[in-house]
Amino acid sequence: MIGSLRGKLTFKQAPLLVLECGGVGYEVETPMSTFLELPAIGADIFLHTHLLVREDAQTLYGFSAAEEKTLFRTLLKVSGVGAKMGLAILSAMTAADFQRCVRYEDTAMLVKIPGVGKKTAQRLIIEMRDRIEQVPLPAPAASGADRSKDARSEAIDALVSLGYRLPEVTKLLASLELEGQSAEDIIRQALRQVVH
């Protein structure tokens, strides 16, 4: 099994990239979350990888974050979910957002992902309910942008626990200026919008 690769990025065309390691070029498929973070051609990169072996193909999948790889592997265990759908899910949302969808049984968010219908969304929620806690989420980082993301996540969790559905909350927060705001400020602003 190839667990990770470190090497020079020699080609990229979504969702495929070629990573040269010790003179060997590995073709790697990635979710858009990883692909959009890629540096320029010629730069050195590190990817967490998963090798999928089938009768007709051996495909290498690459992820910039360990939790994405873990979620991808966990998704492959769900009946009816293949690598293509796993990549689509990771391209559409973060591991934390997916965890939130499962926890709050938010099929409405999941059906927005290409290839995920209502039945598949329900199956994902049912089958991932016991497994989702095994997916480690990244530790909160200290930069301002990351603090804003953490405050946003905290505010989303709080609003959902107050009884609002995740799509409503996402829509509410989309119209707010969240940069540099604490979770409490975001919640206050969102609730003010609901009242008006």
Q: Tell me, rounded to a whole number, the average pLDDT.
A: 84
CATH architect. name of the largest domain = Orthogonal Bundle
Under CATH, the homologous superfamily of the largest domain reads 5' to 3' exonuclease, C-terminal subdomain
Number of helices: 9
Helical percentage:
40-55%
Oligomer: single chain
Strand order within the widest beta sheet? 1-2-3-5-4
Overview of this protein structure:
The protein folds into 3 domains: 60 residues, OB fold (Dihydrolipoamide Acetyltransferase, E2P); 69 residues, 5' to 3' exonuclease, C-terminal subdomain (DNA polymerase, domain 1); 52 residues, Ubiquitin-associated (UBA) domain (Helicase, Ruva Protein, domain 3, Orthogonal Bundle). It has a 5-stranded mixed barrel. It contains 9 helices and 5 strands, in the order βββαββαααααααα. Helix 7 packs across helix 8. A hairpin with a 2-residue loop joins strand 2 and strand 3. It has 196 residues and is of the alpha+beta class. About 4% of the residues have low confidence.
Helix and strand layout, with pairings?
Layout: E1 4-13, E2 16-21, E3 24-29, H1 32-35, E4 44-53, E5 58-63, H2 66-76, H3 83-92, H4 95-103, H5 107-110, H6 118-128, H7 144-161, H8 166-174, H9 183-195
Entry keywords:
single chain; 196 residues; alpha+beta; OB fold (Dihydrolipoamide Acetyltransferase, E2P); DNA polymerase, domain 1; Helicase, Ruva Protein, domain 3; 9 helices; 45% helix; 19% strand
